[in-house]
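Let us practice reading a record.
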Amino acid sequence: MTGKPHLAAIAALTAGALLAAQPALARELKVCGDPNNLPFSNRAGEGFENKIVAIVAQELGAEVTYTWWAQRRGFIRNTLRAGLCDVIPGVAANMEMLRTTLPYYRSSYVFVTRTADHRSIGSLDNPALRSLRIGVQLIGDDSANSPPVEALSRRGITGLHGFPVYGNYTDADPGEVIMQAVAKGDVDVAIVWGPAAGYFAKSSKVPLTLTPVTPQVDGPMLPMAFDISMGVRKEDRALRAEIDAALKRRRADIVAILDDYGVPQL
């Protein structure tokens, strides 16, 4: 009889030791991203947003899991607000639908020209734009105007050639088309969102020159430059605070990643 309690105690201690030896379940950082949107993100984790998310997760002691969804109309509604993820990287700071973190970079639209053409274009008011073929990005499924299109339209500038900002989604690099148009001479100049322009200019066989668009704010409330943050649900104040702290601690590493991808930073 005295042996049975002794054996039971040994069994309990052994079970406890086994449980203690098992690793604790890792925290999960659920992220929604576009699976084919370089330089920002892709399914292989090759975008700069993928790299920055990995840094944030490391600071939070979490493992990243992705829900992949093409960034089209309804992206936030169908992902974050539907509970499929907790974080969206790469959103405009102070976006009303979200609670946004501290910005981790600021960039602008840029003029893209062939370096060999020696065109010096930095302003929307440059008179040369009236006689040039200008490539512009159109946003969304309905090809809505981007801020540069609105600004050029205000000036009565025609000769615009539209390129969907997301390109042909069956291509490996759908956002590169407008840059290729400049390189091939299909347009004389393009106005492109800076991070995409910087990334694709680095790999272009034809040297390209990038010049930030001025003015940074055209007339009342038409910005050409934006602070970029991460977004969480409005009620997720604690998660936002954790991400803010991570972005602050790893600021130098984040800037190095942006530089490596050619992102123009203001």
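A brief commentary: DSSP finds eight helices and 13 strands in the chain.
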